[in-house]
Amino acid sequence: MAKSNVKKSTIYDLATLAETSASTVSAILNGTWQQRRISEETVRRVQKLAEKAKYTVNLQASGLRKSRSGLIGMIIPTHEDRFFGSMSQVFDRMARERKLQPIVVSTLRDPKLEIATVKTLISYQIDHLIVTGATNPDGVSKVCRLDDVMHVNVDLPGTKASSVISDNYWGAAQLTSTLIARSKGQTSRERDRLYFLGGAPGDYATQRRIQGFSDTLTARFGALEPEQIRTCGYEVAAAQDEISKLYSQLRGLPRGLFLASSMSLEGAVRFLKTLPIDELQRCTIGSYDWDPFASCLRFPVHMVRQDVEGLLTAAFKFIDQGDAVHEELLEVRPQLVIGD
Questions:
Q1: Are 118 and 129 in contact (CB under 8 A)?
Q2: For the stretch 49-68, what's the b/e string if a residue is b when 16 or more beta carbons lie within 10 angstroms of its beta carbon?
Q3: Secondary element (H or E) of residue 195
Q4: Average pLDDT for consecutive 10-residue bins of the chain (340 residues)?
Q5: By CB atoms within 10 Å of each CB, which of 39, 216, 241, 315 scores lowest?
Q6: Strand positions, DSSP E, 25-99
Q7: pTM for this one?
Q8: Which domains, from first to last, does the chain contain?
């Protein structure tokens, strides 16, 4: 008998026709859709399309996907940043407390590498994924949903899965208020200002930190000048170059510096250590991220310490409850650490 050339419909074909995700179609066809709170209208639409396409569930493939590997993955932007290093350590501990084997992979803030890495982790049959600081969290969610992998965003939010982030606005406002209160006025108009340095302009966390910084300064001094916001990225060398340029333009240090991350702090310190101590004492410095070695510097640094334990406790709560797909956004307040 000749082989039929008719292509059998797949779950992805049905998802496209129904204008929904493959994971939603899978839940409807295997009878678990009520646990996902999928609407009855969507259920009827998918079932009608499946009947029309004569689609049947591949029980063998379904059984393989439902088997538990005991693996949980986490992607982070970099191992170099102290915040993400701490995140990795706490994740490792919390995963093992749940008898899960943790896998942590750096994606270098590259959206293409994020997707490729997640696809590789899924090929190893991970049960869950924590998506930390992703540049394209919704792209990652799309990949995870196709394979029914439960995931939650941490640090940077997405719109297709639950997200747990720091309250960046509140932390930035608190740090800016501290810089205002502890800084001294300068004789030069350009130097008698606070400057924001670091972060990426399109990054959600950076935007919220800039907003907290700007609103606090505006309430105290009036509108900011554009040059007071200097987003130069997250690289240490970029921060070092940017503060060097600022110093040359102002012919000295400004009244205060708000450094957007620990990487920005490291870059700034590489330049600041070349200056005499009396000049450093005329500039009040703050960092949105905590580094214990900052207490060893020749000048005080006020810092915002993000609550890594709180962030991951909330993320694992979503996973433990099997409830990470409802697109909830939680903000966890950081801690203000005053420099000596």
A1: yes
A2: bbeeeebeeeeeeeeeeeee
A3: strand 194-197
A4: 51 81 78 75 86 60 60 96 95 96 96 96 92 97 91 96 97 98 93 97 95 98 96 96 98 97 96 95 96 92 98 94 75 95
A5: 39
A6: 71-76
A7: 0.79
A8: 11-64 (1.10.260), 69-161+308-333 (3.40.50.2300), 168-305 (3.40.50.2300)
